[in-house]
Design a protein that fits this description.
By secondary structure, this protein is mainly α. The protein has 4 helices and no strands. It has helices at residues 2-22, 29-49, 55-76, 84-103. The protein is flat and about 45 Å long. The two termini are 14 Å apart. This is Guanidinium exporter. Its main location: membrane.
Length: 105
């Protein structure tokens, strides 16, 4: 159950990061409010997952899901560049996430 909560928390991190981007520096009300709501939800789920997962594992996976998810969303939705170096960085992050999962008991 902790892993599911952690995955959802990571996905919510992607949502709040996107909302923050479209809030245009918190100058648009609706995306600004959504940023805060999804941020609180993401942190809450992360804290529940940390009750049974090691700090390093939980935080690394949460951050990694957020980073890679935001990277993919940026490319697909916002038209950000997908060059070889950025793709390699994403693959390395995903590799680290898999290793963290495999190393946890």
């Amino acid at each position: 159950m902790a892993w599911m909560l952690l995955i959802v928390a990571g996905l919510l991190e992607v949502v709040w990061a996107y909302c923050m981007k479209v809030s245009d520096g918190f100058s648009k009300l609706t995306p600004s409010i959504l940023t805060i709501v999804f941020m609180i939800a993401s942190f809450a789920l992360l804290s529940y997952a940390m009750k049974s997962l090691p700090l390093g594992t939980a935080y690394t996976v949460w951050t990694g899901i957020g980073a890679v998810g935001s990277f993919i969303l940026g490319i697909v939705v916002l038209g950000e560049p997908a060059n070889a170096m950025r793709m390699l960085a994403a693959v390395l992050i995903i590799s680290g996430l898999v290793l963290m999962k495999l190393s946890s008991s």
